[in-house]
Amino acid sequence: MALKMPLKGIKVLEFVGLAPGPLCGKILNDFGATVTRIDKILDNPLDVLQQGKRTMSLDLKNPKGQALVRRLASKCDVLIEPFRPGVMEKLNLGPAQLCAENPRLIYARLTGFGQHGRLAPRAGHDINYAAMSGVLSMLGRRTEKPTAPINLLADFAGGSVMCALGICLALLERHNSGRGQVVDSSMVEGAAYVASWLFMSRNLPVWGHERGSNFLDGGAYCYDTYETKDGLFMSVGALEPQFFEVLRGCLNLPEDLSQFAPNDQERGRRLLTEAFLTKTQAEWSQIFEDLDACVYPVLDYREVHKHDHNQARDSFEGIGDVVAPRPAPRLSRTPGKPTQERDNKQLELIDELELEAGELKELLDSGVLNLPKNAKL
Questions:
Q1: What is d(CA 235, CA 297) in angstroms, rounded to the nearest whole number?
Q2: Which end of the chain is more exposed for a tag (fewer CB within 10 A), N or C?
Q3: What is the predicted pLDDT for the residue at 1?
Q4: What's the pLDDT at 340?
Q5: Rounded Cα gap, residues 361 and 358, in angstroms
Q6: Of the candidates 111, 125, 269, 117, which has an alpha carbon nearest to the alpha carbon of residue 183?
Q7: Rounded CA Rg of the chain
Q8: How far apart are CA 181 and CA 177, in angstroms?
Q9: Are 272 and 236 in contact (CB under 8 A)?
Q10: In the predicted model, what is the mean pLDDT of residues 321-331?
Q11: Mean pLDDT score of the chain, rounded to an integer?
Q12: Both ends of the chain: CA-CA distance in Å?
């Protein structure tokens, strides 16, 4: 008998915005939830995370479109909305109304600055939220300006993942209370929370200097990346003495070279730079293959699925013409499972709307409701 996925039976209504919301919906979908996307358009090439989700386009400014949302929300367990505070209320779709109609509804609000506070109505992007979280001030080389890690920190770690966690916590609490609640997921607060260790470890010896001058942020030559002969890179994390001694032996480093002495940092970085340039990434990878020195190749995202460890764990898979990570973390009995294609079970969706044939035709003809062309009505 096939095992049920963890979120099997959970129905999610996702209002499509930028990528943080769709990734939150993808996480829930990958672990078994049925996710219905509501988008402004049916063919949205910017949403690359819609595999496995059902889709419909609604005119949310039309009262009939709003009524359809309320009808769907009354049957859903979770609603995800990524708009600025007040937008859903103007559409008569705020939590006060929808949660009153469905007291078990988990209403997740994923925004940059949260639902209240002076900045709540303001626009922003990942780099702004990371900046306001305090974490961006910790990132970057000593002689350079703060550098954002693409848009991973606030959009996805602090936004999507923390919002999905909030939803799962609310679902767990609902199991006991029978009641839903609002999840106020701020990307600023999420980014800061993800960085809790960075905030709470400031009295440890690993810190104490300006950005880029500490053990873990580029200040230590034994915790950095180095270019190889073929223009690729190796990562070095030889912080502990036993790992550094293995590194020292493999690179023929001088016995008097200290790991962390301030006066040895420039010298050590020069010696490691020169050493790694003498061999290719493949050659260095082979040298460190069976050694615990915390030295590993920096794998290119286009080639990462070919590494034997990732192949052994089946960590990646092809989705269309791209390679994508499989759901994580792994559950021993009920693991997540990504869907390759978009879910075209529109008939189920129409059944959930409980529309008469004439009413459905009128909504489609008027443009209030749009369904994919391959929807079987």
A1: 6
A2: N
A3: 44
A4: 67
A5: 5
A6: 111
A7: 25
A8: 11
A9: yes
A10: 93
A11: 94
A12: 32
Give the type of residue at 275: A
Backbone angles phi, psi at 153, to 5 degrees: -65, -55
Residue in the structure block whose two tokens are 């190749």: 297
8: how many CB neighbours lie within 10 A of its CB? 12
> For position 9, what pLDDT does the model report?
95
Count the neighbouring beta carbons within 10 Å of the beta carbon of residue 200.
Answer: 9
Partners of residue 370 on adjacent β-strands? 57
Q: How many residues are listed for the chain in this entry?
A: 377
Q: Which of 89-93, 259-263, 349-353 has the highest mean pLDDT?
A: 89-93
Cβ neighbour number for residue 146 with a 10 Å cutoff: 16
Q: Residue 220: in which H helix or E strand, if any?
A: none
pTM value surpassing 0.90: yes
Amino acid identity for residue 206 in this structure: V
Question: 136 pLDDT exceeds 60?
Answer: yes
**pLDDT at residue 301 is higher than 60:** yes
Cross-strand partners of 312: none
Q: C-alpha 207: how far from its chain's center?
A: 28
For residue 25, the one-letter residue type is G
The answer to whether 58 touches 89, Cβ cutoff 8 Å, is: no
Catalytic positions are 125, 155
- In angstroms, the CA 269 to CA 129 distance is 33
* Residue 374 in tokens: 């391959």
